[in-house]
Amino acid sequence: MTAAPLLVALAFYVAALDLAWGWGFIQSVSSAPALVLLAGAGALLAASALRVARAPGSIAARSARTLLRAGTALTILALAASLLLRSGGGLSAGEGEEIPPRGSYPALQFGEVTLAPHGPHVLSKTVEVEVFREGDGEPVRIGLFPATDLAGHRLTVLRFGYAPGITLVGSDGAPIAEGRVKLGTLPQTQEAASLVAWTPETNVMMGAGTFPPRLEDLVTPTGSDLHVFLRIVEARLGGVRRDLADPEAYRWLLDGRPADVVFLVQVFRGRERVFDGRVRNPALPAVAVGLALLAAGSLLAAGLGAARLVRRARGAPRAS
C-alpha cells in the first residue's frame, strides 16, 4: 500500500467537513481522523524511503528517490506532530483594553486596530493591532501573517470585529444598561434568537485565516424584558459610502475603519416589537451644530472687537 490513497482520503475528508459543517482547514486537519491519515501516510512514505535506499541500482538515482520520499515523510509526520502536540488558545480584547498577567502572559495593553486594503507580503488586505507589553516602550504589531513572537508565544489575528457603545435608558430616564457590544459574540437563547431575521454568516476568508466580522447582535440586559437588536447597515469605508446590507459587503470591510455608521435598531419588550428604524450616531449632529455655533460666536466676537477698535480710533463716544 502506498501513501497516495490515504492523502486522497484526507482531501475528501477535509472537503466534506468544510461543505457539511463549515470547518476551516486547520480545524479539519487537527481532528483525530485527519491526524491518523496524516501519520499513516507519513509512515508509509518513510517505509518506502527505506526500501528505495536498500534497492539495487545507481547510487545517484537511489539517493534522489530516497531523499524525496524521506523529505515528504518527515514533512507530513512533523505536520501531524505539530498539530497534535501544540497548545493554543484565543485571546479577545478591545482597543485600549488592559489585560493583567495570567499564566505565561505578561500584562498587555491593546492599542489601535488598523485595517488596510493593501498589506505586506502576498496579502491583498490586512489587519494589525498594537500591543504594549509591561515594561516595553515600543509596541509590538500583530497582524494576520506571519505570526509575531511575544513573551514566548506566537500570536496572530484570527478575527476582528466591531464594538459599538450602547446606552439603554428606560421611559423614566433610569439607566438599564451601558457598555460596548462586541457584535457577533453574545450568547443567545433559542427564544430570543427567534425574534429577528439573522444574516447568514459569510464563509469566505478575507486574508490568512481571517473571516469577515459580524455586523449584528441581540442585546438582552440582565433583569430586563427588553431585547435590542443592532445591525450595521451603512458606513463610510476607506472614504466610500457602502451599503453593508449587500451580500458582497464583506469585500469592503478591510478598506478602512467604519465612519458615519448607520444602524438598524429593533427593540422588543418580550416578543412585542416596540421600535424599528435606522439610527445614526446621535452625538454627531449635536457636535456639528455645536461647532457651527462656536464658529458663529467667534466671528461675532471678532466683529464686535473690531468695531470697538474703530470707534476708539475715531474718538467716537461709546454707549454704556
What does this structure look like?
With 320 residues, the protein is of the alpha+beta class. It folds into 4 domains: 4-85; 98-155, no CATH class; 165-281, no CATH class; 291-320. 34% of the residues lie in helices and 25% in strands. The chain has 6 helices and 13 strands. It has helices at residues 4-21, 25-29, 32-54, 59-85, 190-193, 283-314; strands at residues 98-99, 108-116, 126-133, 140-142, 148-150, 153-155, 165-169, 175-180, 216-219, 226-237, 240-243, 259-269, 272-280. It is elongated, with a radius of gyration of 30 Å.
Question: TL;DR?
Answer:
The protein is an alpha+beta fold and 320 residues long. The chain is built from 6 helices and 13 strands.
